[in-house]
């Protein structure tokens, strides 16, 4: 076998490894999107069975993330990639980590839905959360599309629009406080929803993390560490709710 043939086979095998990594990221993205949608449907409809099925999907994401990490490390060791190829592999490791966390946050919402399935309902309290879910879902979809298309501008748009989700979370926080002040019997229900709103806001953060990774992958540039803010700093509250 000639040297050129061996080189061609090596390059083809390397391309195949990168394609497999990309397909696994796409699979993780699909699972994470469905888990988020199912968790919110379970919360809105107080559907305990759907919430349980959502929780049961989480291990699949965990396994995929481990597979991607192991394969990415093995590829780096074998191929010793540079420049764009190295960024490609590093990006899969970063994005798989963010998608695994999105799955964890969706699972948390589903667990809240299970707890709330026997509690009283306040349909008005869920309106704001539905808006947050719509925005977070769109950000996640757009950033996964940006990764698939290697579209840095689309990724930058997601990074900027995360501020919308911050503003919505602030509005939900005020609404839920109002419900609690109106009737102390609402406190338990609304507290669970506060945790859910924080989970959705953090899903937006992971979408912006992925957006930063896509920009880095495509251009080699890093975005500013300070992201656009859609509301005043609520770091004290955030720390309390996410604990």
TrEMBL record:
Compartments it resides in: Cytoplasm
One GO BP annotation of this record: intracellular phosphate ion homeostasis
One Pfam family per UniProt: PhoU
GO CC field: cytoplasm
Main localisation: cytoplasm
Composition bias type Basic and acidic residues, residue spans: 224-234
Keywords: Cytoplasm, Phosphate transport, Transport
SUPFAM superfamilies per UniProt: PhoU-like (SSF109755)
Record has Ion transport as a keyword: no
Chain ranges of the PhoU domain: 25-112, 129-214
Region (Disordered): 224-243
Assembly behavior: Homodimer.
The protein's role, per its UniProt record: Plays a role in the regulation of phosphate uptake.
Family per record: Belongs to the PhoU family.
Protein name: Phosphate-specific transport system accessory protein PhoU
Organism expressing this protein natively: Beijerinckia indica subsp. indica (strain ATCC 9039 / DSM 1715 / NCIMB 8712)
Record lineage: Bacteria, Pseudomonadati, Pseudomonadota, Alphaproteobacteria, Hyphomicrobiales
